[in-house]
Design goal:
Length: 378
């Protein structure tokens, strides 16, 4: 799965990735099947009921673009008698230009409504697939369940459709921008035509009428352009956030448990036993003093809280081993601690944190009673 760029912390719910609307064209994630290629080489920690309680589930993001488009009713551009003057011929050319803009307003407004409806449909279908996945994970399921993999691919397909919808809306925005520029240019030409000699009174009457109607056309085009821009920004941010959600959801499917899933406890109680970073204090300490230590949920909660406060934070994963015992036992402990650190680092990247923001190191501590992995903020 690709890493996700930085955003303002982590969204509620399943997000533990750095998401940003980095452009109006959104690239699709690779297929989830690649995430399970190394399944035989990596086993997620066994669920341990004695471990710290997980954070509660939060609401999903709302579906964007569902509100109706503001009504933009084209106006009729009134004609006028041909006075035979050169000024009147200029007026007729400008009138045809503005009338053509009114036709484009009508067609582009209808196109915007179609795109918004299609985008809302794709977002709704995505949320349905996402809800089915989280429901299964919440009640419990197998690791790498192929039914959930298929649902995940369905959800990704809907986000791809939403991305294509955003691209189409962006193209519509470019068209509307060009029309707006044309309308403003026509207004300038109308103003300049007043000063041209050889006009009769009827020419100036037609100019005044066309000037008013061109001003109305400009207002309509600016309103349409704002509608398009607002929809592009809202939908782009939504799609980027949900790409991050899918990253974490893929890791949840792989481990068979919902990261951030609701267990009837608040986020505060979930992280109450975690030492937040302060100077050299670890963000979280994972003690591997027994087989199958479950650290995923408490690690998720700690990273989540840190990135809400410091969106650009990186993390240092340190393998710590004791110095007690024979030289051979110390060497074995160091090797085991390094393997544990690699597992923790892999878990963090599965949660969506880019590997470029992670470092791994190893050390010994005479005060340690067993192997530990300490995660620091840097």
């Amino acid at each position: 799965m690709r890493g996700i760029p930085a955003q303002h912390g982590l969204k509620k719910g399943l997000v533990l990735a750095f998401a940003v609307a980095g452009g109006l064209s959104l690239a699709a994630c690779s297929d989830i099947d690649s995430m399970f290629a190394d399944e035989a080489a990596y086993d997620a920690p066994v669920v341990d009921p004695a471990a710290a309680p997980p954070p509660s589930a939060a609401a999903f993001n709302t579906v964007p673009g569902a509100a109706p488009v503001a009504t933009i009713t084209p106006i009729t551009i009134d004609g006028g008698a041909d006075t035979g003057t050169q000024v009147n011929r200029t007026i007729q050319s400008l009138r045809a230009q503005v009338s053509g803009l009114q036709s484009k307003i009508s067609s582009n407004s209808a196109r915007l409504a179609e795109l918004r409806n299609a985008g809302a449909g794709a977002a709704g279908a995505y949320q349905e697939a996402k809800a089915r996945i989280t429901t299964r994970l919440q009640v419990g399921t197998t690791r790498g369940n192929p039914e959930l993999v298929a649902e995940w691919n369905t959800a990704q397909g809907q986000l791809d459709a939403l991305s294509a919808n955003i691209n189409a809306m962006n193209a519509l925005g470019t068209d509307a921008t060009n029309d707006s520029s044309t309308a403003h240019f026509a207004q300038n030409q109308i103003s300049a035509t007043y000063t041209v000699s050889g006009a009769v009174d009827e020419d100036h009457r037609q100019l005044r009428l066309l000037e008013d109607q061109t001003a109305q056309t400009t207002v309509m085009l600016d309103r349409l352009l704002k509608e398009i821009s607002d929809n592009v920004q809202r939908s782009t941010a939504y799609a980027a956030t949900e790409r991050a959600n899918l990253t974490v959801l893929a890791a949840s499917i792989k481990s068979g448990e919902l990261y951030g899933g609701g267990m009837g406890v608040s986020m505060g109680s979930a992280v109450s036993g975690v030492q937040m970073a302060s100077g050299g204090t670890p963000l979280v300490v994972i003690k591997f003093d027994r087989p199958g230590v479950d650290y995923q949920q408490i690690l998720y909660a700690a990273l989540n809280q840190t990135l809400q406060n410091r969106p650009s934070a990186g993390f240092q994963v340190v393998a710590v081993s004791p110095t007690r015992g024979t030289a051979a036992s110390v060497q074995i402990a160091q090797s085991s601690a390094r393997r544990n650190a690699q597992d923790v680092m892999r878990s963090i990247t599965d949660m969506g944190v880019p590997a470029a923001r992670l470092n791994v190191a190893s050390t010994t501590d005479p005060g340690a009673t067993g192997n530990e992995v300490r995660v620091f903020v840097r």
